[in-house]
Fold these 3 entries.
Entry 1:
Amino acid sequence: MFYSYRFESEIYPSLSRIPLHVRMKLDLTGVKISLKTWLAFSLEERGVLCHLPVETKEEKKNFSSYLDFLSRRYLGGKVSLVPPMSDPPWEDLGRIPDSVHAKSKQMGQVVTLKEWSQWNLCQRYALFKLSISKNEPEQFYETLKEFREGNSGSS
């Protein structure tokens, strides 16, 4: 499954940036890649990375191994590894991460616990990641609006 967001729709045809759903997979597997590395892969290979699941231990290992294979093939070296994110805050349905609360409060539209618990994992990840990002702060607000309107989904 590949979760697509409306605010990223312009990058999907060419996968010219690392989609947010792939960034979640990277966080969960502890693999670090740059945009330069991402763009070294063929469009088809980037598409495979978009659709590879990372729900089980085995799937995470397969995702990491495939990225390592691609990195060695195109860049001549292993991928960079960091500790995978453990107990990710977007997985906790009973607590809104402080960064999400603070960012939504800044705009006067605080995310409620009811909303947080009703959004799916990918939606909660997006809000969390965008709430801590220093790049393009307006994306957090656009994404929150998108989720509240119910106009997002997977492909």
Entry 2:
Amino acid sequence: MKKPVGGNPMSECITVLGGGLAGCEAAWAIANAGVAVTLVEMKPHKYTPAHHAPLLAELVCSNSLKAARLESAAGLLKEEMARMGSLCVAVARKCAVPAGGALAVDRDRFSKEITRCITEHPLITVEHREVTALPEDGLTVVATGPLTADALASDIARVFGDGLSFYDAAAPIVTAESVDMSVAFRASRYDREESGAGDYINCPMNKAEYEAFHEALVTAEIAQLHEFDKPKVYEGCMPIEVLARRGTDAIRFGTMKPVGLRDPRTGHRPWAVLQLRTENADGTLYNLVGFQTNLKFSEQKRVFSTIPGLENAEFVRYGVMHRNTFLDSPRLLTQDFRCKALPHLFFAGQMTGVEGYMESAASGILAGKNAVRALRDQSPLLLPSETMMGALSAHICDTSVKNFQPMGANFGVLPPLGEHIRDKRERYAVLAARALDKLEEVLRCE
């Protein structure tokens, strides 16, 4: 083994646990800094209930990486990540499929390309095995995600005490050819050209159809959850049937809102609309937007087939609900994603309390870069709070937060501007410009 840089007693090889988006970004950042990295992924020897492919960076829920435009929080985050050398953003842009104003990807191409980049990097070694306990020494980035296997999750709970957990839900996917386009129609809300009009398939409902669907949904049989008696559901991924039980119009004012759409058959706005978003580059698969669910598979087929246009829909994947676990990060981690009690450990991904694909990947970039800095006895990389990445990393270590919950990219986490700008889009554009200026100042010093 080579002599540690700067006399650091830790090995020059850094270990990354987990081959999801955060783990891949961490490994990529470490290797591109000239440090050897071992990426440990338990697939294909063992799968979680939500994973199905042996590839790295598998997308288990939506294939959308949220808004692409720079004057959006999600778009700003991705641009910051790109300037920080993100692998996921570069590959996502390469594998993009039409999704209005969002950056959505062909999930199979995306995972295959990430896997190729990781496995072909000369400084990255991929080991396929399950890790059942936190390592006692050696710099390690733990990025095992919200679906951390039971044995390792138990060890994390043993080391850190009681953690927080909730259930996450994924939406079903249907084939495009099975959607009845004599009923459904293509359109984006308000037919905005900048969002790519026609990127969505819309299944319209009149009042009677919606009320019949709602009744079927709220009375449908739920799949049994065995691990916990009283699962805690995160609002950001609320199952459609849970939301529907909050009132007859709850989903009609939420994921099924008809605003900005006009049914070409009637010339009027529908009472409610289900939108379908493309899943792959060929446009052969579509997911039911906002229809994360824990209904039994047979019930999903029965209930969702009552939606106009989906009477003969072919479901290639049903929705599933799975465990999602995250740390009480303000008490456990520092802003560089390092463990306070066990400084040889860094954490990354949704486990840290960032919510979303790109947010998780962004934390992987920072955890990986800071693991390298720890190896080299350098001060940590802490991005300015004016940047989206900096604001999110500050959020996960904010000890003033008493009831810690996951946080996705949003402009509310950024410091306010010195001037008041009434127009929201203009204000967001200024916030984004400020963030990128601050990031460039940091990168020039790197």
Entry 3:
Amino acid sequence: MTYTALFGLSLSTSASAADVTKLVEPCFACHGKEGVSTEANIPSIASYSEDYISSTMKKFQKKIRPCIETEIRSGSKKGTKTDMCKIAAGLSESDIGQIGEYFVAQTFVRTPQVFDAELANKGKSIHKRKCDTCHTESGTVSSDHAGILGGQKMAYLRAQIKSFKDGTRPMSAKMKPKLESLDDNEIEAVINYYGSVQ
């Protein structure tokens, strides 16, 4: 099923404000208004870079990233199910570019969440040694083109690391040996560190 069929939209390649609004509104149904998620297992995507959104959507189109079915959380399709591969399938390169331009201009809101301070302190040290090269400034810099980790939903981060570890989500050649060198406690420490970033 295409994006148009899923959300009942007739998409245009022209970049008027009205077109962009129609294009991004369906994203709000799961990722929250302006890409600020209120759901523990769905990431906030506000301020994600255009490059990161583009590469992510293309991975969903090619089914390189796992197509996990989820329930639409709000809007006219609330309660029905879909997955990101179905949503991405009907998007043109121009559509994806407009979506990226919209979300990079939004403000990422860090999620206040419960974390273990001792683990977070350990995770900070691990982050500096293993992750900071690509996820700079505690994983908060959009222009790293690596998503935003600092202040992101911890439940979401756990799920993504699990999919990296079990091979359902591919890792970059640079990330793979670093993640594989961490044991479960060290991974949880890093997740708690990202959860502590405010």
